Amino acid sequence: MLEPKFMYGSHYSSPGYVLFYLVRIAPEYMLCLQNGRFDNADRMFNSIAETWKNCLDGATDFKELIPEFYGDDVSFLVNTLKLDLGKRQGGQMVDDVELPPWARSPEDFLQKSKDALESSYVSEHLHEWIDLIFGYKQKGREAVRAHNVFHPLTYEGGVDLNSIEDPDEKVAMLIQILEFGQTPKQLFVTPHPQRITPKFKSLSQTSCYNASVADSPGEESFEDLTEESKTLAWSNIAKLQLQEQCKIHKEAVTGIAVSCNGSSVFTTSQDSTLKMFSKESKMLQRSISFSNMALSSCLLLPGDATVISSSWDNNVYFYSIAFGRRQDTLMGHDDAVSKICWHDNRLYSASWDSTVKVWSGVPAEMTGTKRHQFDMLAELEHDVSVDTISLNAASTLLVSGTKEGAVNIWDLTTATALHQIQCHSGPVCDAAFSPDSRHVLSTGEDGHVNVIDVQTGMLISSMTSDEPQRCFIWDGNTVLSGSQSGELLVWDLLGGKISERIQGHKGAVTCIWMNEQCSSIITGGEDRQIMFWKLQY
Description:
Layout: H1 15-22, H2 27-33, H3 48-57, H4 106-117, H5 120-133, H6 140-145, H7 167-180, H8 203-213, H9 222-235, E1 240-247, E2 253-258, E3 264-269, E4 273-278, E5 283-289, E6 295-300, E7 306-311, E8 315-320, E9 325-331, E10 337-343, E11 346-351, E12 355-360, E13 375-381, E14 386-391, E15 397-402, E16 406-411, E17 416-422, E18 428-433, E19 439-444, E20 448-453, E21 459-464, E22 469-474, E23 478-483, E24 488-492, E25 497-502, E26 509-514, E27 520-525, E28 529-535
Helix pairs in contact: 1-2
């Protein structure tokens, strides 16, 4: 095609298309547009099925629906004015719009249309429509790829009217633009975030599913059952009951790690000690001190043989449970190490020296007395101190939160920053990916609870509490956070509100741990206590 190239010679929304649908309630406008006559009877808005088929199959018909399809007024579907709209080729008169077989009445048709518009399917795909109409697929190469190119006159700035000197030609051009319809102003040049939607079945479906499992063994995998139990747990997260509490430290608790069988609990504290506590005997079994500086976090390597602790003395310590001694020390930073993560023989360490470092050579089984060679694979540089980090489920992405309120999302496969979002006015307390890696949640000392879209780096939700949320866990829809006052708060992200407050510590909740089944929770606080919680439902 010669320039200017386009795929459609008109537009999806024009006066003619709107009046096509509204002829039964606004006939005078249609007559004005059609020089005093109604359109050919076979081309009128006669049937939902016909209109659907024409738009789906016809290359020249691409009308979008109008808001009346999702309203309460059915008059545009019914010929209440008894207009003579002509006779069709088959001999029948044009009267009421013929509805689909699934609609009992015009009112039922509109109600079902509204239900469809508000369905989870539409919510999950709404961003794709935004990309076409208002977003990055509206113009340019992406529009061509998406088969979304309309007549040049329909685009803002498509014609320079000031360059047309002939007044008659200018008026003709303005009328043509008016009748063609207009593409909205382009608002976004990057893909729009997907809307946050509930990803799980309803509880009624869950209970029905659980009842039928025994009848059909082998149809659902163990993973499906685990997902069902997690869903059930998170939907009942407000029913958290305190089982017991223990004061085992002299300062605030900073980290919690638990053995696979749940019997041994390891905690770190600002009192510089790593403690090993038996959940069964309720006894403190070990107390280890690596230096006189505070410990900031801890984790257990798979196999439960080694505990790793990060310290304000710039080091990371490896403690062998079997041998009962410090096995190795990683001296990798120039300032306090604030948080550590581990996955697949790689250690990730965040520090107040403004870096996050990725180390190889950290095997799950660190046996014997042999010291290990730690190789730095990558260094993720920041402008200021890094206070927290977290990995996504696949360990392909890392999120970091800084002292000055920035949340950074990193691609670990290339060690490059994908997004930097300045979304807090003070230090970031905690940040973590949703299970599906689509979103990041962050909390800050400013009291904000923010949700960020990972693909676009866009802040898509922000809620405020009257105090900082120091730590949290979440499933993508619901958040359980530990507050500065010691309460545990349950947040409904979709509703944008706090749905439950649970009394907990006598000072700030500083760390929180949840088991894989989401049924058991342990919290640590500034009151030097660890609290054991169970879901009761």
